[in-house]
């Protein structure tokens, strides 16, 4: 590529999170970087968009890197929309989201702001990747991520991704030397078993905190959960056509029009 | 069925919206109804969940129907979680969400709080259906919906739905006599072309309203958009395994571990 690729960077932990700062550093070596990211943490926002409230996006200067950066009051999906329509003067060659502090493997993909940003870019025909590290802490160590993020990104820039697909990449929380490599996977069948921590307000009214336990229901060795548990980086090609095509034939045997 | 089915009803427009009131009326004729719905409109929330804030759910009495009702401060997905874990004393036989004021056809499914509630129930192994009427107004006329909602619901109770699938039902905004029937469809390939309405605050700072135009990119006659435009109720089987299985083989040819 003679011209450096234009790379849009976003996330859902907020523009100052260590994970996105690391990702910006990696992307600065690959292309021209524009960051449009939420001004605060947006975790668990799923594919929310801001319909009933106003949005702002303003240029900010956080470090002395060559990237341009905009802090946005919206959700991750909003950030991608506003970047494409208002901030960038041409379609980006790539959108990367993350590096998320915490897993977006398996069923977590549907709750994930990180992945919703990647999907929003994918909807616009932009190759897109969500990156997540299996460590929820703010002080997570992203050192082991660099080479894997770089390799996957360069492959996407070289090979492209078909329309309708984005990549969901999760990295195990291991020292670089202990990571065995990259595995292409399917999304494991798993579930959250929620437990509500029920408390009383000082005024005596019941309220709840949502907590839960992740349960992997899938014994397959071709899943993202298996890869991560066994020391691999997982790459799941993820689509936003949610049609269960295999069930259409059965559904047509129902007596819906009698 | 000798015992009346237990039906969980929720939505994303809020517990007092005309669409859910209509749905409760229909479901009261089919089974024992428990409503757990957001205390206010939650449209565009996607599959958001409340991780960093507290939740409440309290019993309310809105009309003189036989249903039990709980108003919840959370998102549609939160409502289903709290219903299953804290409110209901057994697993419901069915979860219905809606009737949404406005379309959740095509790509709208990924932004939809209505469908996120249905998917959340599906994750728990509960047969689930999201219903939406193609009229965004609060005064939408739901009269044409009754028989179609009843037929689809009774078919789901009779036939079941395989694990991993929920139904996304959209109803055209037409008088009952003009609706031609029910069509099983796939999700149309479509997109929103956003336009940001840029304004200035009284203090002179830029801000935006998100607006947009829906663009159907899909000429197929087997899509939900086609069905709705041609006077049919659309039923799309919708899955939450987002893996693009057809792309795994190609992805394995990439040089990810060189």
UniProtKB/TrEMBL annotation, chains A, B:
<feature type="binding site">
    <location>
        <position position="12"/>
    </location>
    <ligand>
        <name>a divalent metal cation</name>
    </ligand>
</feature>
<keyword id="KW-0479">Metal-binding</keyword>
<keyword id="KW-0963">Cytoplasm</keyword>
<feature type="domain" description="Survival protein SurE-like phosphatase/nucleotidase">
    <location>
        <begin position="7"/>
        <end position="193"/>
    </location>
</feature>
<keyword id="KW-0378">Hydrolase</keyword>
<feature type="binding site">
    <location>
        <position position="43"/>
    </location>
    <ligand>
        <name>a divalent metal cation</name>
    </ligand>
</feature>
<keyword id="KW-0547">Nucleotide-binding</keyword>
<dbReference type="Pfam" id="PF01975">
    <property type="entry name" value="SurE"/>
</dbReference>
<dbReference type="GO" id="GO:0008253">
    <property type="term" value="F:5'-nucleotidase activity"/>
</dbReference>
<comment type="similarity">
    <text>Belongs to the SurE nucleotidase family.</text>
</comment>
<feature type="binding site">
    <location>
        <position position="13"/>
    </location>
    <ligand>
        <name>a divalent metal cation</name>
    </ligand>
</feature>
<dbReference type="InterPro" id="IPR036523">
    <property type="entry name" value="SurE-like_sf"/>
</dbReference>
<dbReference type="InterPro" id="IPR002828">
    <property type="entry name" value="SurE-like_Pase/nucleotidase"/>
</dbReference>
<feature type="binding site">
    <location>
        <position position="100"/>
    </location>
    <ligand>
        <name>a divalent metal cation</name>
    </ligand>
</feature>
<dbReference type="GO" id="GO:0000166">
    <property type="term" value="F:nucleotide binding"/>
</dbReference>
<dbReference type="GO" id="GO:0046872">
    <property type="term" value="F:metal ion binding"/>
</dbReference>
<protein>
    <recommendedName>
        <fullName>5'-nucleotidase SurE</fullName>
        <ecNumber>3.1.3.5</ecNumber>
    </recommendedName>
</protein>
<dbReference type="InterPro" id="IPR030048">
    <property type="entry name" value="SurE"/>
</dbReference>
<dbReference type="GO" id="GO:0005737">
    <property type="term" value="C:cytoplasm"/>
</dbReference>
<comment type="function">
    <text>Nucleotidase that shows phosphatase activity on nucleoside 5'-monophosphates.</text>
</comment>
């Amino acid at each position: 590529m003679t011209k450096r690729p234009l790379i849009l960077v976003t996330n859902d932990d907020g523009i100052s999170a260590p994970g996105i700062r690391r990702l910006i550093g990696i992307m600065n070596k690959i292309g021209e970087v524009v960051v449009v990211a939420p001004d605060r943490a947006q975790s668990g926002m799923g594919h929310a968009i801001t319909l009933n409230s106003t949005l702002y996006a303003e240029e900010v200067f956080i470090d002395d890197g060559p990237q341009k950066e905009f802090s946005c009051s919206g959700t991750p999906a909003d950030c991608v929309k506003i970047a494409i329509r208002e901030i960038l003067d041409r379609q980006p060659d790539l959108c990367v989201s993350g590096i998320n502090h915490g897993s977006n493997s398996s069923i977590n993909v549907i709750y994930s702001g990180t992945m919703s940003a990647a999907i929003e870019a994918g909807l616009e025909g932009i190759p897109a990747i969500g990156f997540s590290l299996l460590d929820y802490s703010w002080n997570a160590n992203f050192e082991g991520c660099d080479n894997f993020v770089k390799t996957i990104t360069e492959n996407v820039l070289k090979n492209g991704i078909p329309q309708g697909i984005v990549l969901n990449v999760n990295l195990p929380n291991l020292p670089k030397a202990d990571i065995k490599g990259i595995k292409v996977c399917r999304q494991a069948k798993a579930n959250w078993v929620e437990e509500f921590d029920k408390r009383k307000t000082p005024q005596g009214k019941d309220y709840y905190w949502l907590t839960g336990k992740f349960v992997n229901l899938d014994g397959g060795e071709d899943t993202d959960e298996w890869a991560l548990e066994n020391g691999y980086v997982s790459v799941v090609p993820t689509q936003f056509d949610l049609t269960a095509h295999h069930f259409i034939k059965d559904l047509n045997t129902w007596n819906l029009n009698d």
